[in-house]
Amino acid sequence: MSEIAYVRGDATVPSVKGVKLIAHVCNDMGGWGKGFVVAVSRRWPEPEAAYRAWHRDRASNDFALGAVQFVQVERYVWVANMIGQRGIRTGSKGVPVRYEAIDTALGRLADRAVELGASVHMPRIGCGLAGGRWPLVEPLVTERLTRRGVAVTVYDHGEGGRN
């Protein structure tokens, strides 16, 4: 079983060969514009456009907590929009992150990674604006991805993710 590799850098620019899946957590409200998605949109317009269309047409598709949308942005690069947070603000129900939804989404991500023979690249998902804690997310990544032999690299950009 491999372990998660931690590097300092930009998860939108993985420097490994082969097929790459760039994974990140989205909210269930259709909001896109803060956090890691800004870096994604700077490189490729397709993931944001696909996410917005997925949300707009949610009555007729699988858009919900735990769902994943895979968007091919280059020949060997895919972006995985994972719905893992309820809303966008911390309120009476706590922080927006939903660990169960991230767990479900990671299972779907692992299936696609195995199917494509891809490595996975991500920031500390769910731990920025979503308010999650990496010590709770990391075991989910290990269980769903690295235990299945998927190579995972977590990127800390600047100061890195909150713990």
TrEMBL record:
CDD domains: Macro_Poa1p-like
Gene3D superfamilies named in the record: Leucine Aminopeptidase, subunit E, domain 1 (3.40.220.10)
GO biological process, one term: peptidyl-glutamate ADP-deribosylation
InterPro entries according to UniProt: ADP-ribose_metab_enzymes (IPR050892), Macro_dom (IPR002589), Macro_dom-like (IPR043472)
PROSITE patterns from the UniProt entry: MACRO
Catalytic activity field: an N-(ADP-alpha-D-ribosyl)-thymidine in DNA + H2O = a thymidine in DNA + ADP-D-ribose
Name of protein: Appr-1-p processing protein
Source species: Streptomyces cadmiisoli
Taxonomic lineage: Bacteria, Bacillati, Actinomycetota, Actinomycetes, Kitasatosporales
